[in-house]
Design goal:
homohexamer, 183 residues, alpha/beta, Rossmann fold, 5-stranded parallel beta sheet, 5 strands, 13% strand
């Protein structure tokens, strides 16, 4: 009797800080899931929050990812979010990633440092087509939220709703003050 | 005009070390998903591995959870696994959990310490019916793997397959040696 | 028989880095102790020292606080200083504070980030009247010490005496050099 | 004109974990304050709590110390409690202590390791007369609380009252269970 | 013109805690340097000291290694000692080692855990002939020092001299007391 | 019978980040070894790498030091390199150094902060003659590598060869991009 071979799914990795989640992230995730059977969405610098460049907690960022991907019609069976804290030494970063994420075949990234770190470990890295990077970047969305200029059109509607629940305007303005430490 | 109210899903939390994933975990997760719309499965002590009581990495543990839950027919849209490292002070443990897991309504747990820590924060905790705890515990599965007595029937078939891929017998025997530190 | 009720004292918290202790701190503490029976003076970022914005150790800062408050005539039975190290994640900061400071009723603070963090935990925060903030700030005192312009009148006489014992001029000038790391 | 010399107060250090505060601690502190003008009471292993040998937070331990010393009639102007976290390397322990505690002249301790660490730095250490150590030790008080045998007479009345507020019986029994980690 | 090829030296790694350095270590190092051109002697758990199983600092351990190897006539041009602190996760241990030790070709080790960790990275591991392991082990030397039975013949004369300078008898007896923490 | 006295060698310490190793470092080491019998070359901030100001790992830095010193004809019996990670508090830095480096008599340094930290511990510090600091500094070598202007003549030939093996141009350009974090 011939047994059917167990097909090994093709697994990808996409890493971001998602401060906050915007349409550029959504486009990159959509691009990635077209190329793999399953995608791990790594929420990096997971320990950071309430800082000027990192206002949102991992909890808030995973909420935005989940609601936006669900809202986009992406199958929940195709992805999972995994938070990852920074390592004290960048030389440990890929090993740390490998120790928390199940086996993967390819990393989707345009980041030159991530690329350089992965390459030393022989990991395959695939670049992601840019999606109007000037407009759709975390820094730009944060800047606009802080300034009070239009930002809602840059993020999926589910992310916008959550950002308002998080009190994003007040939080970002608080952190742009000079007194960024609790005392 | 009357808008349809957005239904807020009921979200649960189930915490375990999953060293390794066994049928007791599967039963607890099945019990939990019957009571909530969505479940976060927290992989605690995520930084531990290659230690006597914690042989498997978070990567390996999430692999076992994912393959076993997929194999059990549980909808991928109902759950997500989240790794969580220990905090230096247990007084920070619930705050750390809150900072990485999206909003949840109830914790499924029988662990008296977790209960005691959650209660101080006013979190609702629901106990899980025991599932032959003497047989189905991580410690018992690890002991049997190390001894070479029957263990495969204690874990879902997908977990058993992965454990063999991980070289679980050799790993657990190595760690039960006296030389538990790398030198 | 009617027992006299045990009066629960009203306890406050005032947080600062005290780099160094100046008359603005003294005024804030005086304001606070008028509103509570007992005040915990939290010395934050306690692990920092010998850095440009944080030149003094917790030891030196507690010395300044103690000598200046004793010199000001404030009752020692009204306050205690507690050093607190930074947390790796700001989401853990209030929990960390709660785990080292005895129960308190109110926090005295004007800092928007501290306010925002406390508010999420339902802690009552009371603002402190400003005391010529431009002149009486740690940054201004440090700048003047480094430049060699008049600074002694900005700090209580006991703090000035200690700062000279600590070799504050030399230390601050050393740290304003480019070589802020030990090598 | 002859200025009166500023008398330098004699300062002592007494270190303990205070898990929980008992009459042995009170006797040691009373002994110490007879020999110095001011005493720093260092609450060591401040980051530990909810562990079998370290059930109480620094917050709870400082509460017990403060209420018991106030109740004993000891002048608040004679002492201050300072929490101190463990250092990753014991070779850094004395340096860490020096960096948070103001200048001191003598350490009161019977602990051979503390003695050995201090001696290398030339710190003067004075031993404390033992106060029925078998009965008055943290381990004995914790054991009795857990067993349900008489323990209240071993601690000052203020500490007993607080311990009951903290739910000490339940907490200690929870921690003596096998499930000492949150999962 | 033909250039002489630059010969690439063969480099080895030998890892130990050296608590303390004994003749078993010396024999292993002599074995290793016969097989390579250069040897890195890694002093692991470098952050540990003044603990029962790890009484000596990295400073003291490197002193013993250096004096004993110099005394043994081994060429200083053949080796270098490198201290290495433990990693929070063992999954990061090989990556951490690689980030501090220059390129090496082979690891000399009999330790099953080190072997298992290295094997996953494809590192060549060569076992070292045992040298009366029952007698020549750090644990046995420490036990004998503490008991006051003969130990000097188990370590090179230079290590014995240093151990006496370090006050090894007193230190080990102090640490075998029950009060292993500074308070 | 009169025994010959055991001559105690004079030991020095020279601390640097060596990002990368250049002729200024070589000149300083040569100066130092003329004044002592043995020199410990401390590679500070050993945990840093792949950052803009700290591109190279400790592994790479020790390789450069070793090859350049061997190439310069300096006796291997005269020195050893020791990597040292940063301490969370600078007040612990000298204690940490003492806990990993064997006894030393003098520190060679021109760094005002290192000087200030050592002085408090009574360590003798000797300044090193400057060697065209504007040209021969890590920052200048890194800047030139990134810009593509002449840099090879600033570093020993062995360091230049290794830097090219490390892909220094690409690495430094990658790190000078805005995306200095892995995501």
């Amino acid at each position: 009797m011939i047994l059917p071979s167990r097909k090994v799914p093709r697994v990808g990795l996409l890493i971001g800080r998602f401060q906050p989640f915007h349409y550029g992230h959504l486009a990159a995730i959509r691009f990635a899931v077209e190329h793999v059977d399953y995608l791990y969405v790594v929420v990096s610098s997971a320990q950071k929050n309430n800082e000027f460049d990192d206002p949102f907690t991992a909890s808030e960022r995973i909420s935005m990812i989940k609601d936006a991907l669900d809202g986009s019609g992406l199958e929940p069976s195709k992805w999972m979010a995994i938070p990852m804290v920074d390592t004290p030494s960048l030389a440990l970063w890929v090993a740390a990633l490998n120790s928390i994420i199940p086996r993967f075949d390819v990393v989707f990234s345009n980041d030159p440092l991530a690329l350089s770190l992965f390459r030393r470990y022989g990991v395959r890295v695939k670049s992601v087509p840019y999606f109007n990077r000037k407009l759709f970047s975390g820094a730009n969305v944060r800047r606009r939220i802080g300034e009070g200029t239009a930002w809602e059109s840059l993020v999926p509607v589910e992310a916008a709703r959550l950002l308002k629940e998080f009190g994003c305007v007040r939080r970002i303005r608080t952190l742009s003050d000079k007194f960024v430490r609790p005392s």
